[in-house]
Amino acid sequence: MASDMSGFNKRSNLDPEDYYYSEQGYIVFTEKYHLKRGYCCQNGCKHCPYGFNPRKRTFEN
Length: 61
Known about the structure:
The protein is an alpha+beta fold. The chain has one helix spanning about 30-35, and strands at about 20, 25-30, 50-55, 60. The strands form two sheets. It has a two-stranded antiparallel sheet with strand order 1-2. It has a two-stranded antiparallel ribbon with strand order 3-4. The longest helix is centred in the middle third of the chain and has 7 residues, at about 30-35.
């Protein structure tokens, strides 16, 4: 799991199609953002394109 969270402070580098705000006000990263990042953080993200299953802690593609 990636422990370097410093990238979250750089919202100005995000494109508008990289994220959206949920009804609760949280930032939700899109599949496009995850693909641009280039790796899976294994946190069970809603739009994970890598097929990570957080319950089994495995990749399923």
